[in-house]
Description:
Layout: E1 10-15, H1 18-29, E2 32-37, E3 40-44, E4 51-56, E5 76-79, H2 83-93, E6 96-100, E7 104-108, E8 114-118
Parallel strand pairs: 1-4, 5-8
Antiparallel strand pairs: 2-3, 3-4, 6-7, 7-8
Organism: Leucobacter chromiireducens subsp. chromiireducens
Pfam family, one: Glyoxalase_6
Protein name: VOC family protein
Amino acid sequence: MTVPIGTLSSVVFDCPDPAALATFYQGVFGGVLEPDDDDWVDLILPGGGLRIGFQRAPGYVAPVWPGDDGAQQLHLDIAVGDLDLAQRRLLEIGARLVDAQPTFRVYLDPVGHPFCTIH
């Protein structure tokens, strides 16, 4: 067995407005917002372990989904109990549905990062 080098403490999103995007993801996951300044906000997920960071990137360009140019770099898979209920709630808080399959749905967050709900 390989000895780990470290543990994952956060995932960070580049974005034009950290507070706005952090608020969107707080609507998805719950948790507590911890702003550092206008350029950085952490969302502390329930349970107090993992953080999602939101970092201001003035030149932010949304990834293209689907696409082969520059690809999407990374996306989140979010487990949900009911795909339809999750879809209604996500659309209410600003997500955009871009693909629906029987076992997953693909969305874009308010600034264009792709994420999926899975069942």
